[in-house]
Specification:
Layout: E1 11-14, H1 17-22, E2 31-34, H2 42-48, E3 55-57, H3 60-65, H4 70-88, E4 94-98, E5 127-134, E6 139-141, E7 146-148, H5 153-162, H6 170-176, E8 183-185, E9 192-193, E10 199-203, E11 215-217, E12 227-231
Parallel strand pairs: 1-2
Antiparallel strand pairs: 2-10, 3-4, 4-12, 5-10, 5-12, 6-9, 6-11, 7-8
Helix pairs in contact: 2-4
Length: 232
């Protein structure tokens, strides 16, 4: 179980996939969790997949062809069912084995990789779905406990040093480089772990959205341990 007692205003639990996709975001609610404890050996699937680089996508045919134990087969059925449900909903889910993500060192004082607290943005209405089946899970930063980095005076001053255009183009510069998507946690922030096996739906910054986008980040992986992640 995840301790979300401090995030009651932001997270809503549901008991099935239909409620996950149909429950509207409203007020402060911008994260919905299908809370579950799937059975099976997901570690076995990670071990059996042939890795190619730091992120390896597992196709459904490859998944079906893996020679697995009984517990591994149970895990596979859950993965295939989750993919089927999301595809039927109109999403494009991807199943990855991740050893690590690439780090952004373009601007050392302001990395914009997924290890930084950020929100997702889309030009069309959409949601982010994700589930970690094995390895370290992602975190949510409650919106009330984070501040946009571009609004922090010392960070904004450093960004202005990078920008050499007209003053009225500065905000566009921040958006084009995704600086405006990143947040800094307050010193007393209480993070929400997404846990293992739970399927989440997170609000995205898009035109017409009625709620604030959900702030989240990828975890720093444990040495030698990959993650099994579904995301779309």
């Amino acid at each position: 179980m995840i301790d979300l007692s401090h995030a009651e205003k932001q997270v809503r639990y549901v008991a099935n996939f239909q409620d996950l996709v149909s429950t509207p975001f409203s007020g402060e609610i911008n994260a919905i969790c299908w809370n579950r404890q799937p059975t099976g050996d997901f570690a076995e699937i990670v071990e059996k997949v042939t890795l190619s680089g730091n992120i390896t996508e597992i196709g459904q045919e490859e998944l079906r062809e893996l020679q697995l134990s009984e517990q591994g087969q149970l895990a596979r059925e859950i993965l295939l069912n989750d993919l089927k449900l999301l595809e039927a909903h109109g999403a494009l889910p991807i199943l990855n084995v991740i050893s690590h993500y690439d780090r952004d060192d373009t601007y050392p004082f302001f990395p914009t990789d997924v290890y930084s607290f950020h929100v997702d943005r889309s030009p069309i209405p959409t949601d982010t779905f994700l589930c970690t089946y094995y390895g370290e899970s992602s975190d949510i930063l409650p919106n009330a406990q984070g501040q946009k980095k571009v609004l922090i005076p010392e960070i904004r001053d450093e960004l202005r040093k990078l920008y050499h255009g007209a003053e009225d183009g500065f905000e566009s510069f921040l958006s084009e480089h995704c600086f405006d998507l990143h947040y800094q946690a307050s010193p007393d922030a209480r993070l929400i772990s997404l846990g293992l096996g739970n399927l989440w739906r997170l609000a995205v910054d898009h035109p017409g959205s009625q709620v604030a986008p959900c702030i989240h980040r990828a975890p720093k992986e444990k040495t030698g341990q990959s993650r099994l992640l579904l995301i779309c």
